[in-house]
Design brief:
Layout lengths: L9 E5 L4 H12 L3 E6 L3 H11 L4 E5 L5 H12 L5 E6 L15 H29 L2 E6 L12 H20 L5 E6 L8 H5 L15 H14 L3 E2 L5 H9 L5 H12 L7
Parallel strand pairs: 1-2, 1-4, 2-3, 4-5, 5-6, 6-7
Length: 270
């Protein structure tokens, strides 16, 4: 049985089989955390082996967080560990690209809301109560620069990330005197499978020259979480940071037009 001196802190990461979630889990593992990680695909088991090589004890869970029972299964796995949860990265998310009224599938958009919004609230409710009861904990919520502006052609995705951003800020304020911190991570376009998964591989946004490296985004997010910051534009790309800061002062109509040009099918140069 481990002594207190040997105790490793425990972190949980959703959407940890690839992309930013995978890199966030690696950050925790490389900084001495054990892990409970989840994703809906079988790749989470291969990812867990990599995290173990980074020195972590890992409990992988293949589960669909779009279903309430999936969230509960993941939470119960966290609770079953011998160590209390020190930090969680609520990172899992998907996008749907296309004209809302004429192109996209309602079922896909409702599933997006279940994952990007409902599961975040559900899991945050469960872990925040536990953390407040212990008087310590850290919560990272992956929002997006897209949550700071209108997002034509991905209207529901942008709205879901605006929710995540607002939710993180509100929760942070509510918990300010509890020992529990909440940090929002706002990536811009990142070199992951996101654009392919949302059907946007043929868009100008997908070919953006200065995409962010997911490892660097995760490093920024982890460091901000450890420092107790309210938000971070997780990026090596200066364009992303400037975009996020400029969004506060740019008219909504201008931001909407800019995003639409980037998200039009076929806008990627040949």
């Amino acid at each position: 049985m481990a002594t207190m001196a040997q105790r490793r802190p425990l972190a949980a990461v959703t959407g940890a089989s690839s992309g930013i979630g995978f890199e966030l889990a690696r950050q925790f593992a490389q900084h001495g955390y054990d892990l409970v990680v989840c994703a809906e695909d079988a790749g989470i088991h291969l990812a867990a082996q990599i995290f173990e090589r980074d020195g972590a004890r890992v409990q992988p869970v293949q589960v669909d967080l779009r279903r309430p029972e999936g969230v509960e299964t993941f939470y119960e796995t966290i609770k079953a560990q011998t160590t209390s949860l020190d930090a969680i990265a609520l990172n899992a998310g998907v996008g749907v690209l296309g004209d809302f009224a004429r192109e996209t599938d309602l079922r896909e958009e409702l599933a997006l809301i279940q994952l990007n919004v409902v599961s975040v609230v559900h899991l945050a409710k469960l872990v925040a109560r536990d953390m407040v009861g212990r008087g310590q904990g850290r919560i990272l919520i992956t929002a997006s620069v897209a949550g700071t502006m209108p997002t034509p052609k991905s209207a529901v995705y942008g709205a879901s990330k605006a929710f995540d951003l607002s939710f993180a800020a509100s929760l942070r304020h509510e918990l300010k005197d509890t020992g529990v911190s909440v940090t929002a991570l706002l990536p811009g376009p990142t070199d992951t499978e996101f654009f392919e998964r949302e059907g946007g591989a043929d868009t100008k946004a997908a070919e953006q020259a200065e995409k962010n490296d997911p490892a660097d985004v995760a490093k920024d997010g982890f460091e901000a979480l450890m420092a107790g910051k309210d938000r971070v534009y997780g990026a090596t790309s200066m364009a992303t940071k400037l975009q996020g800061m400029a969004a506060r002062f740019t008219p909504e109509s201008v931001k909407a037009a800019q995003h639409e040009k980037m998200s039009e099918h076929g806008s990627r140069s040949k």
